[in-house]
Design brief:
Elements: E1 9-11, E2 13-15, E3 18-20, E4 27-31, E5 38-43, H1 47-66, H2 69-85, H3 87-98, H4 102-121, E6 130-131, E7 138-146, E8 149-153, H5 159-172, E9 176-180, H6 186-198, E10 206-209, H7 213-222, E11 226-232, H8 235-247, E12 251-255, E13 260-264, H9 270-282, E14 292-298, H10 302-314, H11 332-347, E15 351-354, E16 373-376, E17 393-399, H12 402-410, E18 417-421, H13 425-434, E19 439-442, H14 472-476, E20 477-485
Helix pairs in contact: 1-7, 2-4, 2-6, 3-4, 3-6, 4-5, 7-8, 9-10
The chain binds nicotinamide-adenine-dinucleotide (NAD).
Nicotinamide-adenine-dinucleotide binds next to helix 7 and helix 8.
Length: 491
């Protein structure tokens, strides 16, 4: 067994309101994306650890689900208060694990807090419907009921927001939960659970397990006692999880990848379009399911837009300090994947207009930094325009007109988000109604959904569910229709 120096933090599972020490543990190493150095190790959970977590959640389910939704909401609001008072601590943890600058991490913590506020107050609006019956004296209404134990599986790109996105709606509905942390952000999952516990969340309501997706995640998805699985991550992992969940018809929500088009029409405000294209493609180092990775530009303004977009991109600063614009990608595997994609594009005669390489700058060269990259000259059917890159790489594609731009936008198996820049409201609405995506934005970025807005996509971007927004309640609860036949009093 490898032994680690004291400065390397050891991250254990969090089960039944306590850190759970595993005898003879196996560890997985987590590296700092900024420096490339080992920063922590986390437990490589096996079936026995998953069983402990599931048992803990099962035991607490009866108590938690029998509280009124208002009481659950009051407890969750205390969790939100605790998050507010520990904003710095949460932001530091996010910043350290992901390599994003502190203020970006703080923005993410704020989004997680809003998510919590929204769903905690949903406890007071946990409405059903009253339904008319065709039968005299029959009264019908619906109530929402929790599924039981929920498996919440998250990625690392915006880790605290991803956690809040799932934990708050799952718990307000009365489920108890097991959060499977991302291999790239294990510490933030424990920190969140500890703060929640300190704020008064009963032991066992939220448990955290760490490990590989293909082991710990797989055991969790296949556990008979897990009644609902909510997964955010790559389309490939989503497919595997869907197959496993289908065997026992467990309830499943899949929030997957994207290949999002960003359209620039000839009547767009070009400076504004450049601003939003840059943010859509490169903020969070392009590690967004909603990243704008295909920039589709009308022929008549293509050159003008390209020049402005490339020169703006060349000014972007890599790093973690406050003056930087984008940080590293999350791990060395992703670094290699992205560089391979860029090199394949070059080999196919794609023209790299800027970036295209790992950063060799002082202080960054050991981290997983890729210079923001723009590539042109490859058709939409080329691999680079069809696969999700999840890094700071965008392509430029030329379109003849709006019909052509829509055709290119929809020529993808994904369908998560889209944006169009135009000053013509008719064109904006025409496009927004026809683009095959769960989100369509006009004159802003391809990202930017809020806690009360439904988010999800067509095709390979998901399985049709929407989280968050009120629609998340449909993921985490079952609807029951109750009917009474009462006596006709004949008076
Ligand atoms: P990933 O699929 O590799 O891993 C995500 C999580 O799933 C991790 O916790 C991992 O351990 C777990 N996992 C992997 N395989 C599993 C399996 N077979 N069974 C159970 N769990 C398993 O994704 P990633 O690279 O960490 O994250 C990036 C992906 O997430 C991108 O595709 C991105 O688009 C997507 N994403 C989607 C949304 C959305 O809302 N649609 C939001 C953020 C990120």
């Amino acid at each position: 067994m490898t032994s680690y120096p004291k400065r390397i933090k050891k991250i254990n599972n969090w089960i039944n309101g306590k850190t759970k020490i595993t005898p003879n543990p196996k560890w997985v190493e987590k590296y700092d994306p900024h420096s490339g150095k080992l920063m922590s190790v986390f437990i490589r959970s096996q079936e026995a650890q998953i069983n402990q977590a599931v048992l803990s959640a099962q035991k607490e389910f009866s108590h938690w689900s029998n509280l009124t939704s208002i009481s659950r909401g009051q407890i969750l609001m205390k969790v939100v208060q605790e998050m507010k008072s520990q904003k710095r601590l949460l932001s530091q943890c996010v910043s350290k694990e992901t390599g994003k600058k502190f203020t970006d991490a703080m923005g993410e913590v704020n989004a997680a807090i809003m998510q919590g506020e929204y769903f905690a107050s949903e406890g007071m609006r946990f409405h059903g419907r009253s339904i008319n019956s065709m039968v005299p004296e029959k009264t019908s209404f619906t109530i929402r009921q929790p599924h039981g134990v929920a498996a919440l599986i998250v990625p690392a790109n915006t880790p605290i927001a991803n956690i809040a996105w799932k934990v708050f709606p799952a718990l307000i509905c009365g489920n108890t939960a097991i959060l499977k942390s991302s291999e790239d952000a294990p510490a933030i999952a424990n920190l969140f659970a500890k703060l929640a516990h300190k704020a008064g969340l009963p032991s066992g309501v939220l448990n955290v397990i760490h490990g590989y997706g293909s082991e710990a995640g797989d055991f969790l998805v296949n556990h008979q006692a897990v009644k609902v699985i909510s997964f955010t991550g790559s389309t490939d992992s989503g497919r595997t999880i869907a197959k496993n969940a289908a065997r026992r018809l467990a309830r499943l929500s899949l929030e997957l990848g994207g290949k999002n088009p960003f359209i620039v029409c000839n009547d767009a405000d070009l400076d504004k379009a450049v601003h939003w294209a840059t943010l859509s493609a490169f903020s969070n180092s392009g590690q967004r399911c909603a990243a704008g990775s295909r920039i589709i530009v009308f022929k008549s303004i293509y050159k003008k837009f390209k020049d402005k977009f490339v020169s703006k991109t060349k000014t972007l600063k890599l790093g973690v300090d406050q003056s930087s614009d984008l940080g590293p990608v999350i791990n060395s595997r992703q670094l290699k994947n992205i560089l391979d994609i860029i090199n394949n594009a070059k080999a196919m005669n794609g023209k790299v207009l800027c970036g295209g390489k790992r950063s060799s700058a002082k202080g960054l060269k050991n981290g997983y930094y890729i210079r923001p990259t723009i590539i042109e000259g490859l058709s939409n059917s080329h691999e680079i325009n069809q696969i999700e890159i999840f890094g700071p790489v965008a392509t430029l594609i030329m379109a003849d007109d709006l019909h052509h731009a829509l055709e290119i936008a929809n020529d993808t198996n994904f369908g998560l988000t889209a944006a169009i820049h135009t000053s013509n409201i008719d064109n904006a609405l025409w496009f927004s109604k026809r683009v095959r995506s769960g989100v369509a934005n006009v004159n802003c970025g391809t990202y930017g959904s809020e806690p009360h807005m439904p988010f999800g996509g067509f095709g390979l971007s998901g399985n049709g569910t929407r989280e968050p927004g009120i629609e998340a309640l449909d993921v985490y609860s079952e609807l029951k229709n109750i009917s009474f036949l009462t006596k006709d009093l004949n008076i």
